[in-house]
Amino acid sequence: MKQGCLKIAGVILSLFIFCFTSAADDVTKNIVSKVIDNFDNPDEIGWSWAAKGSKFIMEGYPKVMLVDHVPMAIKNVYPDPDGGYKVLGLEAKFSRQGDNWIDIFPVNPEGEITEIPFPGIVSQVDLWVWGSNYNYDLELLLRDSSGRVHTLGMGSLYFAGWKNLFVNIPSSIPQTQVQLPRYKGTTLVGLRIRTRPTERVDQFRIFFDQIKILTDMFETMYDGSELATMSFDDAGSEAGGTETTSEDSGL
């Protein structure tokens, strides 16, 4: 009887330790701010930017280019002695009013559409936007860890000059998975400018600077954690002819 009670007590203690450890992992955080793209060094990152308009976009538009400029708020916080500041500019025209939109998205060096991975568990995305009092809206396109794309409103563009816009990432958007690696993360698909039906669309321009995230970089380590993210395409130890073919597997 005494031994049975001891076994039960041992099980309860083990469950308590497990629950306490899991709870501790859930509340442990390492919140950091990371600049994803400040547009200042286009040759040092793995992407550039392109844009595409909806049905009534005028021929030759939208136009995208880097411009020598910087918001004063960024210049004060991130001083550059060489003055190599740049911002991303966009100009567009539509042939008629309505529910028009323009997507701004990253492309790889080959010009193919790509996505920018966000490290950690992201809680907020912000960027600087130069508006010119057009009654448009800005949206963030974010892909979650399961592959679904979410459209998150960042606010109205009805303002003049530079303004910092941000959006909090809802906890309902999955950024982890049960299987390893647990932190699969999210990716930036792009930005979308959507016009209001009654606003003029004959010509407008907008500028962006410093896409930044607030993210939790804490990750619980475990024995062999490096194996979760290794690539089988990497050069490594030879397995001695263990390549599987349909004949080997009997299929």
UniProtKB/TrEMBL annotation:
Keyword Signal: yes
Subcellular location per the Swiss-Prot or TrEMBL entry: Periplasmic flagellum
Tagged with keyword Signal: yes
Top-level taxon of the source organism: Bacteria
Signal sequence bounds: 1-23
GO biological process: one example: bacterial-type flagellum-dependent cell motility
Keywords: Bacterial flagellum, Periplasm, Signal
Pfam families noted in UniProt: FlaA (PF04620)
This protein's GO CC annotations: outer membrane-bounded periplasmic space; periplasmic flagellum
Protein name: Flagellar filament outer layer protein FlaA
Source organism (scientific name): Candidatus Gallitreponema excrementavium
